[in-house]
Specification:
Elements: E1 18-24, E2 29-32, E3 37-47, E4 50-60, E5 65-70, E6 77-82, H1 92-102, E7 110-114
Antiparallel strand pairs: 1-4, 2-5, 3-4, 3-7, 5-6
């Protein structure tokens, strides 16, 4: 199974770490790294050579609220999304595998470029 059921009790009750995927889309919204997250890898998503998004795979160290800034509004709107709503993965490799699955569309020219 690629995903794990981490529940909402935080890492204090977990015997193993869990990993999440954070997304930012230029001009639309950006997700910020906050206390309780440890970024491991970042990737630009390219669609026919044009950057469409940036993804960060991060270890969830504890339940937290992820800061998402909506850049489409002036002034910018800040939302704090509880980490319990994020999909969680057992390993960084499984998170990356899911990211590859989410960003590939048949024979379209899509790439994940490691930062």
């Amino acid at each position: 199974m690629d995903r794990c059921n981490a529940g909402s009790s935080g890492n204090a009750g977990r015997s193993r770490p869990v990993y999440v995927i954070l997304t930012s889309k230029p001009g639309q919204f950006r997700t910020e790294i906050v206390d309780g997250l440890r970024p491991l890898a970042a990737y630009d998503y390219l669609f026919y050579g044009t950057k469409k998004a940036t993804f960060v795979i991060a270890e969830l160290l504890e339940d937290t609220k992820i800061r998402v800034i909506d850049e489409a509004w002036s002034p910018q709107v800040v939302n704090e999304v509880p980490s319990k709503f994020l999909e969680k993965f057992e390993t960084p490799e499984r998170a990356f595998s899911e990211l590859q699955h989410l960003t590939s569309f048949g024979h379209m020219d899509t790439k994940l470029r490691k930062l």
